[in-house]
Amino acid sequence: MTQTGAVVVASSVVTGLVVVLLLSVGAAHVARRRREQRNAARRAALVPLVYTLLDGEEAGAVLAGAPAVLDEVVLHLLPQLRGSDRKVLQDLLVTRGVVERAAADLTARAAWRRGRAAMLLGSTASTAHTAGLITLLADRSSQVRCAAARALGKAGDVAAAPHLLAALTAERTLPSGVVGMALLDLGTAALPALREALTSGTAPARALAASLLGLHGDLHGTPALTLTLADDGQPVDVRRAAAEALGRISSPRATDPLCRALTFSAEPVLRHAAAEALGRIGDPAAATALVAGMAADDPGVRAACADALGALGPDGRSRLTQLADGEGPTAGTARGALDALAVRSARLHPMAG
Amino acid sequence: MREFLTDVILVANWVLLGHVALFHLVTLLLVLAGARRVWRNRHWQGSEGHGETFASPLTPAVSILVPAHDEEAGILDTLSAALGQRYPALEVVLVDDGSTDRTFELVAARYGLTQVTPRPTACLQVDGEVLSTHRATTGDPLTVIRKTSVGRRSDALNAAINHARHPLICMVDADSLLETEALLQVSRPFVEDPDNVVATGGVIRAANGAVTDRGTVVEPRLARRWVVRVQVLEYLRSFLLGRTGWADAQALLIISGAFGLFRRDLVVEVGGLDAHSLAEDAELVVTLQEHLRRQKRPHRIVFVPEPVCWTEVPETWGVLGRQRKRWSHGLGQLLWKHRRMIGNPRYGTIGLLALPFFLLFELLGPVIELVGLSAVVTSFVLGLVHPATAALMLVLAIALGVLLSATAIAVEELTYHRYGRGRDLLTLMGAAVVEHLWFRWAHSWYRLRGLVAALLRQAPVWTAMPRTGFSGSRPVAEAPAVSLAS
Amino acid sequence: MSHVLVVDDDPVIADLVAFRLGRLGLQVSVEFDGEAGLAAARQLHPDLIVLDWMMPRMNGLQVCQALRSDADPQLARTPVLLLTAKAQEPDLERGFAAGATDFVTKPFSTRELVSRVTAALPPGSVVE
To answer: Is B86 close to C54, i.e. CB distance below 8 A?
Structure first.
């Protein structure tokens, strides 16, 4: 009988839990509906005021004491605006005490408070809190570390660049994508730190620095990138990043080292990257190396070489046409590249096709 | 002899109760782990808007692969949703897998296809014959490959992978609808951690009954049939919560067939999709983990707990039965192929937690449930147990299941609240009860048949689902409303 | 009075742009997705279109291409100011190839936007 009793008790408890959950779902649903309606009404009233404020008119007094939904509107707009508009919104957040509260929250116990504070400080682009954010790069929560990195990027203080690069290999690491986006946000001011990292950083830092120098199109980085590409001692990832960067920078001085990498490397990923980079540079001097690369075993390398030849202008195209006449995989790849060129030009010049 | 039989029947009773209770408890724990994470994130999502991912030059390009076999009812919707993704760099590779209807003609007319020389980037084995390759001339980054069908989705996908050009690949079923930000959502882990992330997946929802417009869901609503409503609940439970919980344990096993993103180079490295698997996506995820773990290479598989993809679920018992039988068969194949990983500490939480869970509850569950149920009925008929006790046990088992569903619905309401109408929430609760009256047992029966098929090593049968098209969608072309599958 | 069509899926941004342009004495219409924007352009024949790149349904580039290849020669010549967060070199190339007249990159300044709109419209259409 005790067995039955236990089952009865268990069933009642479970049923009770279900009923409680049901009721709370209902309550949450109604409460959310009401809150949404209230916030929508407040928002509709506040947004025009923000517009007039941005238009240079005085609305600060009303907005300083407005309900919290205003912060959402401002924080939504802030990252999309710059110049004087941004300044106006930043000042509004300072007046409302949002920045001060966030700075205090950087050392809060709850991870979400630290994270949200970091995000807020990043959005307000205030460089006054760089030190606090750098400390958070070693936070125990990975989400907070990422938020701190993003915030440092948005705040735009170049002093943070070495710390961001160091976080790639710190005990509590940051993933390279997050660091890369933050460094890109810092803009060209971070270039010296990146050139420095390319020659003296750790392997992940060198690879990332190379990619970013490429994305910035940094001509001054070409010599260091060329050395990195030619250095057999470097990890493949770093050399590949250097090859891609040289392609983006598109200086013809990189043609020769890239041709060498394409011809002599055993790594398909590196050869692929070198061929692509040669295509971006478009220097006809690369034609011979690219034609040789068309004999590669790896279909990816062949395709990249064919595309690159197509990008070299008339000379490259006539080589492609010659290759397309033959038999075997090389000819097939060449025909594929020519077809792709034809589709593209038909699209750009519909009348001509 | 009679005593022995009595003992056997009673033991079976207890095994059933224990199994049901254990399953519900384990799932509830996972659900709670997921709910805890959702709760912690209520004030701060931990990540920022998608604008940055979209604008970043570091965001990797994606090839969306769409296998299509006789999909004229929905192919144009699917393509416009895929090409209309908010994503900075993508291409779509459509494989017309031996369609006998107007699938190819519709696409050719809409996108002005022109035949080109194929440009393979890999040479995975493809059993069907690749007939021709076409490119769109409308400026859309669309490649179409026509091949003969060998009746396997995996074969079509391998052909698509051979022609994909971008570093990430996303496999989409022709019958699923993508949210416009789906790619931005699931690619975020790749953008943030490009060195370690190898695969990501997102939440899939049942689209039946939803109001749609050209490949996007405008407003989710519940369908009228209970068989569909129960499946909606199933999807909610297993994806919203079960997987949030699994991801926490870094033991994510399945990236569903409807929406997952993978690194192309690694998929090629493991030889593409298993040609003979019926659960090729799950199989790929396990194979990747096994491969990388054995080579001690870093790898992370990330589940993004955001609804990104809507799929049409079976509306009739017959189709549902075939689908579930196939899944169970596929799971059986998968566990057999990777049997060395089960319970093997070398493979970490996947080996110790995920695979045993799937073996015990998903694959063997129906056996235990059906044997147990017949034992309960027998003992009841023979008067071996007190009717009140039997009834109470049944009530307890059902109540546990309903509690599980109620938690899932609660979390849905507290977090995503995609179902705006209170009525729909009540109906879902109703489905949570209805499920245990018959759905559960029918489901067990289908899965049992799948298990038997796997044990007999039957040749896999790939059957497509009849497509009805989506309600509320505007007709794109004068296509027949229903295209019946082979 | 010159007529400007603003198309952006973010209502806060669309309304802000509309508000600033309205202050210049321009007639402004607002749409919130690419398809509706294209339909509005065909119906209203605006003098200028401010178009967001990243939008659901049809993105800004597709709208731009559709406008340029429109049968109505006047509509095909309408200046288009593309508003975008993508400002890498290849993106600009793609934008101009699709037929954009000018770019404003996000994060943007409303003053800069106003100046570019003024420059793209015939002289005298803006009341300073």
So the answer is: yes
Confidence band, pLDDT 50/70/90 cuts, at residue B476:
very low
Q: What confidence score (pLDDT) does residue B463 get?
A: 53
pLDDT at B473 (0 to 100): 38
Which residues, listed in sequence order, are joined to residue C49 by a DSSP beta bridge?
C5, C80
The ranges of chain C with pLDDT < 50 are: none
More confident residue, B301 or B43: B301
A2-45: pLDDT as tens digits? 667 777 888 888 889 888 888 888 888 888 889 889 989 998 88
Asked if C13 lies within 8 A of A85 by C-beta distance, the reply is no
- CB contacts < 8 Å between A and C, how many? 44
* Percent of chain A surpassing pLDDT 70: 96
The domain tally of chain C equals 1
Quick check: is C127 in a domain? no
Interchain pair C56, B55: CB under 8 A = no
The DSSP secondary-structure symbol of A297 reads: S
Establish if B461 belongs to a structural domain.
Answer: no
**If you measure CA to CA, which chain B residue comes closest to A4?**
B389
Q: What is the mean pLDDT of residues A253-273?
A: 94
| Residue B95 parent element (H or E) | strand B90-97
Question: Which has the higher per-residue pLDDT, B122 or A218?
Answer: A218
Burial state string for B161-188 with b = 16 or more CB within 10 A and e = fewer than 16: bbbbbbebbbbbbbbbbbbbbbbbbbbb
Residues 52-111, chain C: which have Cβ within 8 Å of B? Answer: 54-59, 65, 85-88, 106
Task: Give the model's pLDDT for residue A191.
Answer: 94
Residue of C nearest to A216 (CA): C88
Say what the ipTM of the complex is.
0.85
Q: Can you tell me which residue has the tokens 């983006």?
A: A248
* Chain-chain contact of A177 with B192 (C-beta, under 8 angstroms): yes
Domain assignment present for C90: yes
Contact A195, A214 (CB under 8 A): no
- Closest by CA to B46, choosing from B56, B38, B36, is B38
- Asked whether residue B155 is assigned to any structural domain, the reply reads yes
Pairing of strands B216-219, B260-263: unpaired
Give the Cα separation of A130 and A160 in Å (integer): 7
Domain membership of residue C98 (yes or no) is yes
- The arithmetic mean of pLDDT across residues B181-206, rounded, is 86
Position A240 scores a pLDDT of 95
Q: Do the Cβ atoms of B187 and B306 come closer than 8 Å?
A: no
The CATH number for C51's domain is 3.40.50.2300
B141 touches chain A (CB under 8 A): no
* CATH number of B201's domain: 3.90.550.10
Residues on chain C bordering chain A, Cβ-to-Cβ distance under 8 angstroms: 10, 12-13, 15-16, 19-20, 23, 88-89, 97, 106-112
Residue B8 located in a structural domain:
no
Residue C31 covered by a domain: yes
Q: Which amino acid is at C78?
A: T
Q: How many domains does chain B have?
A: 1
The whole-number pLDDT of residue B475 equals 33
pLDDT digits (tens, 9 = 90+) for B86-110: 888 899 999 999 999 999 999 999 9
- CB-based contact B116 A340, cutoff 8 Å: yes
In this complex, do B54 and C86 lie within 8 Å of one another by their Cβ atoms? Answer: yes
Q: Is position B272 within any domain?
A: yes
CB atoms within 10 A of CB B387: 9
Determine the pLDDT at residue B259: 74
Q: Shortest CB distance from C97 goes to which of A82, A83, A348?
A: A348
Q: What is the pLDDT of residue A280?
A: 93
B141's tokens: 């980054």
Pick the CATH number of A251-353 from 3.90.45.10, 1.25.10.10, 2.60.40.1600, 3.90.1150.10: 1.25.10.10
pLDDT at B216: 66
Distance CA B393, CA B402 (A): 14
Q: Which domain holds residue B156?
A: 49-341
